[in-house]
UniProtKB/TrEMBL annotation:
Residue ranges of domain Solute-binding protein family 3/N-terminal in the record: 44-273
Source species, domain of life: Bacteria
Transmembrane feature ranges: none
Protein name per the record: Transporter substrate-binding domain-containing protein
Gene3D superfamilies in the cross-refs: Periplasmic binding protein-like II
The keyword Iron is annotated on this UniProt entry: no
SMART domains per record: PBPb (SM00062)
Length: 285
């Protein structure tokens, strides 16, 4: 500092200037610390998920298990930290992420254009195609168009909600009636109960979830596809601006794909391997 330039400046003004400069330096250093730094400092990756979405995440003997839990464990290990999961209600999971209640979301979340306006996503880790689940003994429902005039349900705020509404619009555009009713539930478990009791005719949701339901209840349900024109994929959601964390997580996912570990998890939890791209597709649901 050139002291000659300080001559004639009142002491009070000089002190204020030095304090403001110090504060500015403090804030600039604090701003440099991002979510990845926070994760590494605490030694823990905090992942938000709705632990009621089998086979992605659910409780077994009091412990959270599932595809997403195993994925999160491997990603945390790759980052050199431990994993902590936070059970969050689906309807408020994105707001909770934005409020920094956890670092990321990994909860069978479909990558959509609307969601990308609010959060960033990792590269895809699984298929998320939306289909209908119907009763096996319902001979009147054999293709998606047969849901015209029927009662359809899904979970509030799920991608099945949005896609089912889009499909109903397509039915109406083709000159057919829409659904006789479209019901929304807080969780998918309620929809399976209602479907089994015959109170609704079909549930819209992600293919891997319904494959798990059918595997657990053989002979009771069937899958009806043809509801979507484009493929859907699932990924990890992060806050906008967490670019270093996104890069680090994508690197971990790429490593899991190349090592075959992601394939093994898909087979373990979905019963079959899935082909997913290494980047988010340009066309999204």
């Amino acid at each position: 500092m050139d002291l000659n330039h300080l001559q004639g400046i009142p002491m009070k003004t000089l002190l204020c200037t030095l304090v403001l400069a110090a504060l500015g330096l403090f804030h600039s250093r604090a701003a440099m610390s991002d979510t990845l730094d926070d994760i590494q400092k605490r030694g823990e990756l905090i992942v938000g998920m709705e632990i009621a979405y089998k086979p992605f995440e659910f409780f077994r003997d009091g412990q959270a298990v599932g595809f997403d839990v195993d994925m999160a464990q491997l990603i945390a290990k790759g980052l050199g930290v431990k994993l902590r999961t936070v059970d969050a209600a689906w309807a408020g999971i994105v707001p909770a992420l934005l409020e920094k209640k956890f670092d990321v979301i990994l909860s069978g979340m479909t990558i959509t254009g609307d969601r990308l306006k609010k959060v960033n996503f990792s590269q895809p880790v699984a298929l998320g195609s939306v289909v209908f689940l119907a009763r096996m003994n319902d001979g009147k429902i054999n293709r998606a168009e047969d849901l015209s005039g029927k009662v359809v349900a899904t979970q509030l705020g799920s991608v099945g909600d949005r896609v089912a509404r889009q499909f109903e619009a397509r039915l109406k555009d083709s000159g057919k009636p829409g659904y006789s009713a479209f019901k929304l539930y807080d969780g998918f478990a309620e929809t399976y109960l209602e479907l089994g009791l015959g109170r609704i005719d079909a549930v819209s949701g992600a293919l891997p979830v319904f494959q798990s339901v059918i595997a657990e209840r053989p002979g009771r349900y069937k899958i009806i596809d043809g509801i979507q024109d484009i493929e859907s994929y699932l990924g990890m959601a992060l806050r906008k601006g967490d670019d270093r964390l996104l890069k680090a997580i994508d690197e971990q996912i790429t490593a899991l794909k190349r090592s075959g570990q992601l394939l093994q998890l898909q087979i373990k939890w979905f019963g079959a391997a899935q082909q997913v791209p290494d980047a988010i597709p340009a066309q999204l649901p």
